Amino acid sequence: MKVSTFSHYILLLTVMLMTKFAYSVEIEQCGNSPQAQQPAQFIINDAEQQRATLRCNPLLTKIAIEKAAAMVEHGIVQHNLGGSPNARLRSYGYKLPEYYGLLLSNQVEAITGGYTTAEVWHAFKNSDTHRKHLLGELEFYLEQDGIGIAFLREWQTPHVEYWVVYLTKGFAENQDNKFKGTEIPNKSPYDVVEVKKNKKIDKD
User: Fold this and answer.
1) Which pTM does this prediction carry?
2) How many CB atoms lie within 10 A of CB 27?
3) In the chain, domain spans
């Protein structure tokens, strides 16, 4: 189900305003809104988090906002929407290492829909592949220390709430460690946290 042309226009305008505001204030807190900032803090401060450090990355949050907007526009939750997650980051100038794959590759993105802020981290942790990614449970993921999250809500779409998390290796000068293992995980295009459908919740 697609949103109407008018709704699409309003959505794009909202995203533009959110992005502009996010760069001035919110984006420093790892998310484009208070709703997005809360699961970011859950991920960073979880007792099972294996990484020593996680940094808020404004470019990752910007890309997450636009991916969430694309999911809202199409009314779906899908990794390969306009290209693979890895390819999407690279198309915005994010410098992933060469050993991160290209087509159909995803070592960077977690997405879902239909969950409130209070529910979403629980949903991600209950997904084996997403938990391993977000908590750094595999050696490959331990070097990933940049995070950005987007949350968008559109009442006239199938899932209402849409979540995008990018957690990946940074590219600042002091983040040049290179994965030396051989086993590189890859989430399939269909490896999406179970999405709630036809949900009915009160507007707040």
Assistant:
1) 0.81
2) 24
3) 5-175
